[in-house]
Model the fold of this input.
Amino acid sequence: MILISHRGNLNGANPEMENSQEYIEIALEMGYDVEIDIWMIDNNLYLGHDEPQYLINETWLDQRANKLWIHAKNLLVVEWLINKNNLHWFWHQEDTITLTSKKYIWAYPGKQPIMNSIAVMPEIFHDDLSKSIGICTNLITVYDKIT
Done:
């Protein structure tokens, strides 16, 4: 089972820390993959969910590429990501599923079971995970203990 920390969260949502480099690093050091939200504004990359908050650089992304699931938050960053074959990314809003750049099925909360998918926030709707190959959640340490 692929275990993905949602924005760096481990034991519940922490909006003050989510998507910050320091918070993401903790989840990575614990061995989890991490879903992050990135933006591009004026040719600069930023982490942040509802808005660009934390300035980052391409080197930071490249050094963690094998453990990051990048949620593109605006069209400028999508255009930039299209040519970054080493980075794993996706765009979605409220689609039932989206296909990531590495061909994983990213499923919207409450839409399970879907064969070979990543279940996002399965705790919200008590999703059936029997067909999932991964989980992205704010409670990744809880799921780590039961999978």
Q: What stands out?
A: Helices lie at 21-29, 58-63, 75-81, 122-125, 140-146.
